## 1
Amino acid sequence: MFKLLNVRTAFWISAVLMAAGCSSPKQAVYDHEHFDDAGTFSRSYPATDLAYCEAGRRALLSQGYIITSSDPKMIAGRKSFQQTGDAHIEISFNLVCAADAKDGSSTMFANALQDRYALKKTNNSASLGVGVLGSVSMPIGSTDDSMVKVASETVSSAKFYERFFGLVENFLPPEVKKAAHIVEKPKADLGVPDVAPAAAEPAKAAEPAKLAPA
């Protein structure tokens, strides 16, 4: 009897704990923000804020980004990528350069925002009136295609920003490179989202052989 009660008690306790676990709220996204100084989004060099941001502007221009701001200390640029016929990606880059307390040094803060768009089809219908012995309505249908934003996310890949800051170093003034002991290296591509391969065209069926007339 006691064993049966213990089994039932354990069962109900387990059920209550499982129900409590299922009903507990999910962890909010901002709980993952630790605000630690990882250095992913910033770099410092012995250069003025103007010279540093100019190097960042040239780095973005070299990768095909369209510059959309005119402030020499706040650079904004964007670039579009067409992955497939129904998907579109746009990356927006934002750079802010601030002078440090150290003599002649400054820090660049960089972040990139990736927006995803998908093709949305909208069906429209209209009526056409024809006055022949009365009024006749004929339904006419049309379809409008438009790109709709479906996702937006800050790029947090450390390797992505390493490539960017490495590219910025190539555009720093010679005296800054010498002071920071920067070795000239080939300009690397920033990298873009993976582009889906184009679908292969279906092979054409072989035409039947024609028989020569007897």
## 2
Amino acid sequence: SDSDYAGDLDDRKSTSGYVFLLSGAAVSWSSKKQPVVTLSTTEAEFIAAASCACQVLHGRSKHIDVRFHFLRDLTKEGVVELSYCKSDEQIADILTKPLKADSFMKLRALLGMCSKEEIN
């Protein structure tokens, strides 16, 4: 999961994105504007991670404060593992940020997708 921080210049809301991979190929993804204005990049990232975790567990929706505890509990129970991902390997960036062509092509490949030209 990933988010841009206050990326919408009109209302300063962030965009969350996540990708689920199975055997290295994308099987599910989402890119949505967050419903609240966040006060920090950390808060925006927690909202993105909680949204992703909710999808794993049948799309349950919770209030933002509950989402943080929900994510913490899932991590403690071993259901979800949060790990650091280097910026240049953050696959969800393709859903949340404008990218240069080389970054776009790299992330597209990490999603397990290919260009139309590669198919022909």
## 3
Amino acid sequence: MTTPRLPKVAGIDSPPGQVPPPAHTVAPAPAVAPVPPAPTAPGAVIQDRLAGWVSDLTTLHELTERLARTAALDDALHELLRAGAALMGARRGLVVMEPGDGLGPDTTVGLGLSRPDLGHIETVPRGATSYGRILDGLSTTPESHADLLAEDGLDPRHREVAARLGYAASYALPLATDGTGRLGAAVWLYDEPAEPVERQRHLIGLYTRYATEHLARLLELERTR
């Protein structure tokens, strides 16, 4: 019994001129109105929030572990600045250690700022800087300056230094807890007008609370050496 030959499929292996013409023309399908997207289910919103919280907690855990591995005050201050910059989306910053008990040691450490840069910042009148107000006890809460150069009443020297170093916004907060007292202040600088969102403020608050306690332990070790 001979197996019948299958017809060739057009466009695959039919020789030229052997493709049969179409029997009829198909009319175009009528336009269909776009269907509006379905509303997001409440469960999906909750899952997204939970995923965000888990991600934030994981990041916070990793950063505090890195800080806990530092065994010297100077190393811990540099790690604090790096972690804070990552959480805040900033590129530069400085931390000023000036323990409230007056026993020192007093020191200033920068991230992305050279020693001459820090020297320029130190020429700004202390009371005109956010970290100066924190260290002098005039401010006990974080200070956000989203657009420094647009602020009315900004100290002229502060304006000059900000323009010279190329930063346009800052976020500062005290390094202090009820148990440790005030140890210092940390400031992160933004190249453009900006300010951290509520989520970032919450994370940096949790991180610096832990960091301050760690710094207090290292400070005691430093003083006993």
## 4
Amino acid sequence: MAAGVHARRGFVLAAVAGGAESVLAWVRRMTPVGRQVALLVCSLAGVILGAALIARWAVGLAVIADSVLGVWLALYRDDGQRMPQVDGVVSHEAVLARFRAAP
């Protein structure tokens, strides 16, 4: 089975068997990326189920809006770090000289 299936099964078993304390312990053991994926899945499920309470067409709009927002956030996010810069421009002659000097 895939790792995601085991993670979901672990969450469900923890929720049913031990209550909130075991769910919190399970979440603390997750990696930061795993937590983000779990939050994303819960968010998407909430959006889709909330839209399903309205009407079938609302589910389509919710999925489209969630996809557009996800793409926008992925493309326009700013992590506060500067853009990668080239440390030094290597000229064509320098590359050829290094190639000629190689054994």
